[in-house]
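quick one, 318 residues, struct below
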Amino acid sequence: MTLPLAGRHVAVLSGGPSAEREVSLVTGDFYAGALERLGARVSRVDPGRDVAEVLARLEPDLVVNGLHGVWGEDGRVQGVLDTLKLPYTHSGVLASALAMDKAKAKAVLAAAGVTVPGGGLFNRHLAARDHVMQRPYVVKPNAEGSSVGVFIVREGANQPPAELASDAWTFGEEVLIEPYIPGLELAVAVMGESNGPKALAVTEIRASTGFYDYDAKYAEGGSTHVIPAKIPDGVRDRAMRMAEVAHAALGCRGVTRSDLRYDDINDLLVLLEVNTQPGMTPTSLVPEQAAHIGLSVDRLVLWIVEDAYARCSAGGTA
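---
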């Protein structure tokens, strides 16, 4: 079942309370613009505590979830939408919560045969006092996206990041610490389809700062995207297959993006995490990969909306 968009009422959620609010607002503009070109009547919603009341009053035919980060991407908003019985885009409650918890997601992915980094969860104050593993390593919040709060501790670093012990730290008491994987930064977008998830392409990301952090992801000129990535065919196929397996293992729906590292010296390919609600901005990877395979922005958004509506109409969850 498809959703003819002409005259349909679609609510676009963007903004919200997370650290990724500004990027989410741009993502919302991306979706709203495409939906309006496709003939939909769009209501833009910057959700707060009254999001259930706002949506109940609007009575949209479908909700496009353009939120990023905690609350909007971790299963909580999805639970509200399920309760309201509103069709919505992207993954449902369980997949969203699981993918957002990096440590739990890694355990599921490893059980599915996906190669993931080692490491584990550590109290942030303990990790601030002394190195908890051999350098170089990476420190990241266990439940944030867009490389917020991520530090690379280089081989010659004398001390761990002092920010971990700061009173200004707002990313939880436990941090995920993993060995640093040298080499290439890769990304693979996946579209979940009725006959199984389908990877679109492999992009190599070359950050201007040497690290694909928040600014490299979203600032103009922060990174260069090489698509298709200049890697051996066998590595490309492995990366795409790993992203498809990860999408399915976590129970994801709609579009996801997997982030990987490839150590080309030791031929080691590692999947770092799965983003269940990838950014849709002028510098984002998913629309870029869609265009690479001949899928325009409007057709991509139409697929995302029709996929969500068809699954919900069939009695499933988004």
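The mean pLDDT is 91.
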